[in-house]
Amino acid sequence: MAQFAHQLEEADNPKKKQKIKSSVLSWIGGIAFTFFIALLGVGLSQLWGFDRVGPLASAIIISVVCRQIWEYPEKIRPGIEFSAKKLLRVAIVLYGLKLNIGVIFNQGMPLLVRDIATITFVMVVMMVIAKWLKADFVLSLLLAVGTAVCGAAAIAAVSPIVKSKEEDTAISVGIIALGGTVFALLYTVIRPILPISDTAYGIWSGISLHEIAHVALAAAPGGEDALAIALLAKLGRVLLLIPLCFILVYWMNKRNVGKTGTTKVGFPWFLLGFIFMSLFGSYVLGEYLHVSTSVMDGIASLSTFILTMAMVGLGLNVSFQAIRTKAARPLIAMLIVSVLLTGVTYFTL
C-alpha cells in the first residue's frame, strides 16, 4: 500500500492517478476474494466430514473447483498473487508462536532424537521411492517435508526454497491434509486393540502423523497424558523445520551447480521471523507478559486464517489436468512412506 501511495504522490496527471487507483482497487479486490473463499473454507470445515480435513484443505477444495468452473477476472490477479506469496510468509512467521521452544528443551529432548530419526527416515525413503516411481521431483519433495515435519505449514515454508509452482504447493497441501486425516482416523479406530500404554500411544501419534491437528485428533482418545506427550513430540518436529530448511537451501544450491537456467536459492529470511516469534512466544508472551491462553489461541487462529487465504491464492492456480498428470505417483509414494513410517515407529517404541 505504501508503494501505491508513493506512486499517487508522484503522479502528475489525472489519467495516471486514475490508473494507479484502479490498480489499488484490483489489488484489494484480489485479497478480498481470497478472504471470502477462506471464510467459505472455514465454514465448510465445520460440516461433518470436512471437519476432519480442516479449513486449509476445505478452502483449497473450494478454490480449485472455483478455478475449474469460473475464470476469475484477470485484473484481480495481483491481489491473489499477494495472498499466495506474501501472506504465505506472514503466516509462517506467525506460526512460530505455536512452537514453545522452552517446553521442548525442558521436557522433550528425549523425544527430539526420535523426531530427528523420523524426519531423516521419511526424507530419504520418500525420495528413493519417488525416484523409483519416476514421480515429479518437486511435488515429491514437498510431500516428503509435509509428511516428515508438520504438514501444510512445512510445505508452505519450504515451497519458496525449492521454487515450487503455486499449483504444486496447493496440490501437496491438499494431499497431506487428506492423507493425514485418513491415518489419524485409522489410529483412533485401532487404539482400543493396541497392546501399548496411553503414553506410548501418544508418542507414536506425535512422531508419525502429519499435522498438529492430525496428532490431536488421533491422540485425544488416549486421554490427557497421551495428548500432552503427543503434542510435545510433534512440537519437536516443528522445531526441526528450521534446520531442515537450511539443509534444503544448501542441497538445492549444490544440486543446481552447473545447470543452465537455474538461479541460486536465496536465504529464507522469513525463517528468521519464525525463529523470533517462537522465542518471543516462548519466553516473552508466556513467562514475562503472562498473556492468557485465550489470546494465544486467538493469535493461532489468525495465523491459520492467513495461511488459509494463502492456500486459496495457491489453489486458484491449480488445474485438474495438473492433478491427473503430476499428483498420482507422488501420492502413491507418500502413502507407501506413511505406511512404513507408521509401522517402523510403532515397533521401535
Low-confidence stretches: none
Regarding quaternary structure, what we see is single chain
Give the H and E element order: HHHHHHHHHHHHHHHH
Instruction: Quote the beta fraction.
Output: under 5%
Q: Counting H and I runs of at least 4 residues, what is the number of helices? A: 16
Query: What is the global morphology?
Result: globular
The chain-level mean pLDDT equals 85
SS-derived structural category: mainly alpha
Q: Helix fraction? A: over 70%
3D architecture notes:
By secondary structure, the protein is mostly helical. Helices cover 77% and strands 0% of the residues. The chain is built from 16 helices and no strands. The protein has helices spanning 2-10, 14-44, 54-69, 77-95, 101-107, 109-133, 137-148, 152-158, 166-190, 198-208, 212-219, 224-239, 241-256, 270-285, 293-315, 320-347. The longest helix has 31 residues, at 14-44. The radius of gyration is 21 Å and the shape is globular.
